Every structure is written in structure tokens, then in C-alpha cells.
Amino acid sequence: MLKDADVKQRIELTITGIGIIIFIFLIISYMPKSRDKRVVLKIEPYSASKVAMAVASEVKSWGNTRWGRDPFLLDASNVKEQGMEDLSLNGIVSDMENPYAIINNEVIKLGDTVNGMTVIEINEKSVVLEQDGQKHTLELNIY
Asked: Which of 108, 140, 105, 102 is nearest to 124 (CA)?
């Protein structure tokens, strides 16, 4: 006669086996069904001359391709003016009445002086500075 522990163990194994079978059935039922079960591979032998001719025609067509902008050329809008190289516009903050700019990690308001230049305008994406009658614009870098 079997002991209670052996009966419990057999019941656990039976339930585990049934669970595994149900799990496998669910996995199979959710797998996508292919319409055509035949797989046909068509491999044509190529000679070295056919490959060379194909590559040569591809290289010739490259001359007609427009590649777009050269990523290694500097964009003219990113080049800073003389005397503005050491200034960095980090951000612009404004409330209903007063706009503030963050230049070189310092909070600046209209009328303040930065590197000998006076802040005359703070716009949404730029700050206009004036020095000796010349206006300089500092653009906000948006990534």
C-alpha cells in the first residue's frame, strides 16, 4: 500500500504534467500559422564576371546619387561671432512681466552687463547684447 506522501507526490506530478501540456498547447495556438509550408530556395550560380559587372554598374550609379548634407561641415548658423565664443546661453525663463536669461550659468535680466555687453532684448530663443553700438545675438542651443 502507498503512503500518503507517495500519493501526494503522484498527484503533484500529474497536475504539473497537465499544466505543462496546457502551456504547450497555448503556445502552439498563439504561434502564427504559415500559409505555405513548402520552402523553396532558388540559388543561381554566379560567375565572378557577373558579380564584377553588377558591382561596377552599382558604383557608376553612385555618381548620380544625391547624398545630402555633409555631416563633417560646420553649419553656418552654429558659428559664433567674434567675442561671443566664451558666452553660452543655457536657458531662458520668463514670468508675466520679466524675462530672464541664463548665460554661463548665471541669471541675467534686461539691462545687466555680460563681458562688457549690455542685455537689451531677451526673446523666446535668443538674447540680444549691445556693445559700442553693435548688436550681437546669442542663440539658444536646442537639441
From this structure: 140
Per the structure, the count of domains in the chain is: 1
CATH number where 92 lies? 2.30.30.830
Longest C-alpha distance within the chain, in Å?
Answer: 108
Q: How confident is the model at residue 32 (pLDDT cuts 50, 70, 90)?
A: confident
pTM score > 0.70 for this model?
no
Q: Is 13 within the bounds of a domain?
A: no
> Could you tell me the end-to-end alpha-carbon distance of the chain, in angstroms, rounded to an integer?
78
| Residue 21 lies inside a defined structural domain of this protein | no
Sign of CA dihedral 62, 65, 66, 71: negative
Greater pLDDT, 102 or 35: 102
> Which residue segment(s) compose the domain that 103 sits in?
83-139
Edge-to-edge order in the sheet of strand 89-94: 89-94, 99-103, 106-109
